[in-house]
Specification:
heterodimer; A: about 400 residues; alpha/beta; 12 helices; globular; B: about 325 residues; 10 strands
Chain lengths: ~400, ~325
């Protein structure tokens, strides 16, 4: 029987990592992720996992050691946030370029300066194009479920790519919620044994990792990477189907909430989706046909499927918990706009930036946005494409 | 049984860094790597920092390494190998692997003294069972001879070029070997390819000691030093005989100078054949030339005192 528990997001992720029981873990502290690695270290110290710990001196070395350990031929984890991810950024590209199935929870946090330890998505967005797979999670249950599924996706023989599992700093990582833990045995058999591909530790078949490849073949390697990325959505769905069989919990490339017959919609990532769904229910009870789309597989982004799911709307607002500086739009908005562009569909669209540096996203902000969507449909005009909400003028 | 340290026997061993790589002719680095590998009778896995050695030995589908080898980035050869070594320990503990394997990281001075210093320091402090070998050619040679913290005082490089306002590098070298010794790791040594038997004995000793080991090896670069193509071994010998590059080891805190020149040669014999020091012989730079000798004398005297101090007096 699954166990009903009251835990924080970090606790849930740490439990998933414990149940998967990887071979090597590189750990370095950073708020708000620290708690995951602290709990995991305690599992290692008490023989609850077989994992060998590498207590590195920086996130740069954490990812570097993960690359070495993964290339050596085993299951490898680390976790990080914010500046830590920024420091690893160089090696993120190498982990994916070398096709190493590392799994890394990312507890989303704002980037400096000014320094801020609270949740926003600037860190994950800064690493969105580095060839990793990104799964985003609304709550502790999803973070736990995504972490378990991440190993299957990363290690799939058609994929072999690293996966980041994103959850909101503090809002999810440090809040206690009710959720379900699977039995250890169930997780273990779902994830299965690690399968080595060209391990460094195979002395009989020596391999060289990390060659120099210049103008003659570099581009073919990049194309091959992109080709692998294109297979990810299929594998994510296949793993989700199997996961549903053991848990009853259904996952897709994204979640649609009251979207099918909706006329207006909000697109939002992670924890803010929960608050938004509540407000959508209120609008629905007033007879307003509102819906929501919450991306789960953010990289690779399922442009065609997302566009298909949104194209019947009259107006859509994309909420971004990060900005892409340059007087352009938030990163999620740009992906949604691209999704609709390839559908040959021009909706009334606007972008609202919310919740930076952990600023609370409250129901009144969702109301504000939904009311504006209603007005937009009525007037047929977008008042302003991009604005910050919940901010002092 | 270990291969005897005789040239005849060693020449029969299979090369682990094979020919066909694209290092410059006369480069000291592959000579150093071959000596380290010839001294290693165990199965071995190597990591390599970005640099000349890395870009020239594994290009696309061609590799000169017939051992498992990994290049990650510039500054993380030590951290990367610490990951490989940890996975080895994990799988060994789980009974999934039973062979004894040794681990060696190679980095140039830029990747070791400078950008890779934190990664190296961390890996050594964590106690991974590995040898880190720095091939020190005294500048960022791969990118075109820029100064590093290993560049000797007075040298002309492309980022501290000799000019009307600048006499070359005005700072002394960072003494990395001693800094690594200060980590309290069980074995630290300095070696030179000119003294090949000494170099190989140090590598062998390091392999027999459990834990982190660091060996710093001088590796002349004729492009950066502006010396003759066939002078790598001669110059590394003069570096040793002038005590610019003393040969020593520090084993569990006890310092041993493994070679003491009968007659310590003046440093100018090391500087003269190298174009990077040419300007030091101009009259206006006499003070700097003098200073280079003073630095070598001071460090050599300190090393001798350290040897005396750390060795228990024999009755």
């Amino acid at each position: 029987m699954p166990k009903i528990v009251a835990v924080t997001g970090n606790e849930a992720v740490a439990e998933a990592l414990k149940q998967v029981n990887p071979d090597v873990c590189a750990a370095y502290p950073i708020t708000p992720q620290t708690d995951i690695m602290q709990r995991f270290s305690s599992f290692a110290s008490n023989g609850k996992v077989k994992t060998e710990m590498i207590l590195v001196e920086s996130e740069h070395s954490a990812m570097s050691a993960c690359v070495g350990a993964s290339a050596a031929g085993g299951r490898v984890i680390t976790a990080t946030s914010s500046q830590g991810l920024a420091l690893m950024w160089e090696i993120l590209w190498i982990a994916s370029g070398d096709r190493l199935p590392i799994v890394m929870p990312l507890v989303n946090r704002a980037l400096s300066a000014p320094i801020n330890i609270h949740g926003d998505h600037s860190d994950g967005m800064g690493a969105r194009d580095c060839g990793w797979i990104q799964l985003w999670s609304e709550n502790a249950q999803e973070a736990y479920d995504n972490t378990i599924q991440a190993f299957r996706i990363a290690e799939h023989m058609d994929i072999r790519l690293p996966v980041m599992v994103c959850l909101d700093g503090f809002i999810i990582s440090h809040s206690i919620t009710r959720m379900e833990f699977l039995e250890d045995e169930k997780v273990r058999s779902f994830v299965g044994d690690f399968r080595q591909v060209n391990p460094l530790l195979d002395l009989d078949n020596p391999v060289s990792y990390g060659p120099l490849i210049l103008t003659d073949y570099y581009m073919e390697y990049r194309k091959a990477h992109e080709h692998v990325m294109s297979k990810v959505p299929g594998v994510v769905m296949q793993v989700a189907d199997e996961f549903e069989k053991i848990t009853g919990r259904k996952y897709g490339l994204f979640e649609s909430y009251r979207l099918d017959d909706a006329e207006i919609g909000i697109v939002v990532l992670n924890s803010a989706a929960g608050t938004t769904k509540d407000v959508i229910d209120e609008f629905r009870s007033k007879g307003i046909k509102a819906g929501l789309l919450k991306p789960r597989l953010f990289r690779p982004f399922p442009y065609a499927e997302v566009g298909e799911a949104l194209k019947h709307l009259k107006a859509v607002c994309v909420l971004d918990r990060a900005d892409a500086f340059g007087a352009s739009f938030g990163p999620l908005f740009m992906d949604i706009a691209s999704s609709l562009y390839i559908q040959d569909k021009r909706l009334l669209m606007f972008n609202r930036i919310y919740g930076l540096g952990g600023r609370d996203y409250m129901p009144d902000q969702a109301e504000l946005v939904l009311n504006e969507l209603v007005d937009t449909v009525k007037t047929g005009k977008v008042r302003s494409v991009k604005e910050y909400i919940g901010v002092r003028e | 049984m270990a291969t005897p340290l005789s040239l005849k026997e060693l020449s029969k061993k299979e090369e682990r860094l094979t020919s066909g790589h694209r290092m410059c002719s006369g480069c000291g680095a592959p000579i150093v790597v071959k000596m380290v590998m010839l001294a290693t009778d165990y199965p071995v896995i190597a990591s390599n920092a970005t640099g000349c050695l890395e870009v020239s030995t594994c290009i696309q589908q061609f590799t000169s390494w017939n051992i498992p080898w990994i290049h990650n980035a510039f500054e993380n050869a030590a951290a990367t190998l610490s990951g490989v070594e940890t996975m080895y320990r994990s799988l060994k503990k789980q009974g999934k692997i039973d062979q004894e394997i040794k681990f060696i990281a190679f980095g140039g001075d830029g990747g070791t003294y400078d950008i890779g210093f934190q990664s190296l320091s961390g890996a050594m402090e964590r106690g991974h069972d590995m040898i880190y070998v720095c091939y020190d050619n005294g500048a960022y040679m791969n990118t075109g001879i820029q100064r590093s913290s290993a560049t000797p005082l007075g040298a002309d490089t492309t980022t501290c070029p000799v000019g009307s306002q600048n006499p070359g590098k005005v700072q002394e070298r960072k003494d990395l070997t001693r800094i690594m010794a200060a980590h309290g790791i069980p074995y630290v040594a300095q070696a030179s390819p000119s003294n090949w038997a000494d170099l190989m004995k140090k590598v062998r000793k390091a392999h027999e000691i459990k834990g982190p080991k660091f060996i710093n090896i001088i590796a002349p670069c004729n492009r950066g030093w502006r010396s003759k193509t066939d002078d790598a071994i001669t110059l590394s010998r003069i570096a040793v005989d002038t005590c610019y590059w003393p040969l020593f080891e520090i084993e569990n805190g006890v310092t041993k100078v493994t070679y003491k020149p009968k007659e310590k040669k003046p440093l100018v014999e090391f500087l003269k054949p190298q174009g990077r020091f040419k300007h030091l012989f101009a009259p206006e730079n006499e003070w700097l030339l003098q200073k280079t000798q003073e630095v070598v004398d001071r460090n050599w005297e300190r090393l001798l005192r350290e040897e005396e101090f750390t060795n228990p007096k024999s009755e």
